[in-house]
Design a protein that fits this description.
This is Helix-turn-helix transcriptional regulator. The chain is mainly α and about 110 residues long. It is built from five helices and two strands; from the N terminus they run ααααββα. Helix content is about 40%, strand content about 10%.
Length: about 110
Amino acid sequence: MCLSSAQCRAARALLAWSQDDLSSASKVAKATIANFEAGKRSPYERTLQDMKHALEGAGVVFIPENGGGAGVRLARRADASIDTNETETVQYEEYLENDAPPGAGG
């Protein structure tokens, strides 16, 4: 199975999505999602893939079973990277006094 009911619930929670939101994004009936998440039925594999693709498209990353258990997390957004522009690096005066001269290594 490509998606568990627990992963589906967790993924929706990360996105703050309702079952209606997932239904709209995946084109899967809300009743199918509700029954799946409640453990009442297991949808067709294609239906599970549609739900998974919709969640992935919204930024969810599915973590496979790797000894620690399957899970979900949000993908790192491209605009959330750390700025590494060294021309704007600030050093405080007290650190400059004891700083090694250029080329001294370390």
